[in-house]
Design a protein that fits this description.
By secondary structure, this protein is α/β, with parallel strands linked by helices. Helix content is about 45%, strand content about 20%. It is built from 14 helices and ten strands. It has a ten-stranded mixed sheet with strand order 3-2-1-4-5-6-7-10-8-9, with helices on both faces. Helix 1 (about 10-30) links the parallel strand 1 and strand 2 (about 35-40). Helix 8 (about 155-170) packs across helix 14. It is globular, with a radius of gyration of 24 Å. It starts with a strand and ends in a 9-residue tail after the last helix. Bound molecules: guanosine-5'-triphosphate and magnesium ion.
């Protein structure tokens, strides 16, 4: 599958840069293309110049809101991010439209963090423009959720997240959720290592996008998972995960056909799928997903139909009501990887929580505004009878 990727705000632009890097890797290691254009859109000029893989010209690194923000961001006010995106939407659409290989893309992937100002406001606005203009291509969003400590210290974090999620969901075909907090569960030091978190966010897309683009027969699976399968699966709230098991590089020749080998492979496969599910980009219950897919990637001689079937049965047991698509991708040496997508999730507790907390925040703000208004009225009252100098 070939994507056209657009990042908004600091987080979105860095992740779009990450997708541009995945494409370079696919080209170098596998001789294929998975990202036909990568763009970075921001109100912050310094952030745009800090990127490394997106082309440097102003058609790929797009500064918006120049006059309103002076090139310094919108300071977490996502209404302002949305307003600027509305004003400058033509600039962004024109850049995308004139991209050299635009027509080769199968889908759009728009990326931003939900808690900031620029990306959170701009993503849904541009998603709507792109969707209206290109009705035949799916528009997917990848939305990054904030760390817990950000939610605790700044009320605006939850409000921005809720408004961004609601708006994005209503105008896109699917929303991949990536929760920053999940990446520091096991390794808290990652909190200060956004680069590492970003590569954990983008990595699961690598094999998934490559599998359907392979041209060499030896890398084409028995059952190819292509753009069509992905588009049929990815709908609504979605999570993606990735797991890996190491395989012995050398085997004793007599063990190659034994039943033990087969059961070891199945075990490794289930282990990788288990990891993929427990490392999903957002905490969710597989039981709530209506569509799912898995891709098994391993050296050709390590894969067999039993293994693919076992993995399917296992996923079915976790997501019994989901329509499950699958594929195999004969590729990696010494490793067995499983990529899983759970899609069309009917419930995600964290989103519900953002919405309800955000309602409290809104009523708190209204209360505060009322209080300020009545205090101002008291002061105006006290000023009655005092002469003004402005006649
Ligand atoms: N995973 C990840 N999260 C990031 C990154 N940069 C920022 N964030 C998160 O994104 C949120 C802040 O949003 P930013 O993307 O910095 O904001 P912005 O869209 O540039 O908006 P303004 O700076 O307010 O104009 C916080 O929750 C951060 O933890 C990044 O590179 N990777
Ligand atoms: Mg910023």
């Amino acid at each position: 599958m070939k994507l056209l990727v657009v990042g908004f705000g600091q987080c979105g632009c860095r992740l779009a840069d990450g997708f541009a890097r995945l494409n370079k890797r696919a080209r170098r290691q596998r001789g294929i293309e998975i990202v036909v254009g990568a763009f970075a859109v921001n109100t912050d000029a310094a952030d745009l110049s800090g990127l490394s893989s997106i082309q440097q010209d102003y058609q790929h690194r797009i500064l918006i809101g120049g006059r309103k923000t002076g090139g310094h961001g919108v300071g977490k006010i996502n209404e302002l991010g949305a307003e600027i995106a509305r004003d400058d939407s033509d600039k962004v659409i024109d850049a995308i439209r004139t991209a050299k290989r635009f027509f080769e893309s199968d889908a759009f992937l728009l990326i931003a963090s939900a808690a900031g100002g620029t990306g959170s406001g701009a993503l849904p606005v541009l998603a709507r423009h792109v969707k209206e203009r290109y009705r035949d291509k799916p528009v997917y969003a990848l939305v990054v959720l904030p760390f817990q400590h950000e939610e605790e210290t700044e009320g605006r974090t939850i409000y921005n997240t809720a408004t961004c999620l609601k708006s994005t969901y209503s105008v896109t075909d699917a929303v991949f959720l990536s929760d920053n907090q999940r990446y520091i569960r096991k390794d808290f030091s990652l909190k200060n290592n956004l680069t590492k978190i970003n590569s954990l966010i983008t990595e699961p897309f690598y094999d998934l996008l490559c599998a359907g683009e392979e041209k060499k027969a030896k890398y084409v699976g028995a059952k190819v998972l292509d753009a069509g399968d992905i588009m049929q699966t990815v709908v609504g709230w979605s999570a993606i995960g990735y797991g890996e098991s190491a395989l012995p590089i050398f085997r004793l020749p007599f063990s190659s056909t034994s039943f033990r080998k087969k059961s070891t492979e199945t075990h490794k496969g289930i282990q990788a799928m288990d990891e993929a599910i427990s490392e999903l980009s957002i905490a969710c219950n597989p039981d709530d997903s209506a569509r799912a897919l898995y891709l098994l990637s391993a050296p050709a001689k390590e894969m067999n139909m039993d293994l693919v079937k076992e993995l399917g049965d296992y996923l079915k047991s976790l997501a019994p009501t989901a329509i499950i698509r699958n594929g195999d991708y004969p590729r990696e040496k010494g490793r067995l990887n499983v990529t899983v997508i759970l899609s069309e999730l009917s419930d995600v507790a964290k989103i519900r929580d953002y919405y309800s907390k955000s309602r409290d925040f809104i009523s708190g703000i209204k209360e505060k505004q009322k209080e300020v208004k009545s205090k101002l009225e008291t002061i105006d009252e006290a000023a009655k009878g005092i002469p003004s100098l402005l006649q």
